[in-house]
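We include this case.
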Amino acid sequence: MSAYAIAHIREIDLNEDILVYLRKIDASLEPYDGRFAVHGVVPEVIEGPFPGSIVIIEFPDSDRARAWYESDAYAEILPLRTENSDSSAILVEGTPPGYRAEMFAEKLIDEGALPDDRGA
């Protein structure tokens, strides 16, 4: 199941360090089969405030996403981004084929977080 590294870049200082980061990140992704799904575009904000931009990197699975983030190659360039931007990053697992939001509702009902309306 695909996994994603997502960064919310609120502000970034476009300087030489960021240039080096951009020139090296692709090589850090290659051993983990990571690819940019979203990068370098200004989002169309359709609800609420959303300062900055977003980067989404897709990986074949969460193990490879975590291995990339913890790799020596990425650790070498990570400070170039973190020290020159106001940003947050997360790793998140995608949904399986055929996933429907209703499946999450059922899970929440089974856990007692939502009322059980299945008998109604």
